[in-house]
Amino acid sequence: MCWWFDDNTGILLPEAAWYDYNSDWTTYPVGQKAANPFGLYDVHGNVSEWVYDWFDPEFYQTCAEGCKDPLGPDEGSYRIFRGGSWRTCAESVRAANRSFLPPDYRDFTLGFRLVRTAPAPED
What is the C-alpha to C-alpha distance for residues 27 and 10, in angstroms, rounded to an integer? Predict the structure, then answer.
């Protein structure tokens, strides 16, 4: 529990995310909180998400200015995960929150998001 951060930050976070403030320390089925403007559920909180990126402590320092969504190096020993989970504090429940772990690490606070390409609009 985050004893130094005991409220909901004033940004309606409890309506959009499961985190230590409201989770009762467990995961929940997707879609019980409000969707974001893109219609995606559980983008913040519930479980942290593994992403494709490998971790390199030097990569972001060497990325050219204006670099958009850098994927990190082509290989490494650690993978990136983003966002917070049901056991993290409000300030960690955001997509920009990044950390790293070995790719074979398993934990009930980590997951992944299934993604598919949207169908092309009919002409």
Answer: 23
Q: How far apart are CA 5 and CA 91, in angstroms?
A: 8
Going from the C-alpha of 73 to that of each of 35, 60, 68, 79, 82, the distances in angstroms are 32, 10, 14, 10, 17
- Give 16-74 pLDDT, tens digit per residue: 899 999 999 999 998 899 988 888 888 888 999 998 888 887 776 766 665 666 666 67
Q: What is the pTM of this model?
A: 0.74
Q: Please identify which residue in the block is written with the tokens 């609009």.
A: 121
Nearest CA to 42 among 106, 89, 105, 111?
A: 111
Beta bridge partners of 79: 54, 101
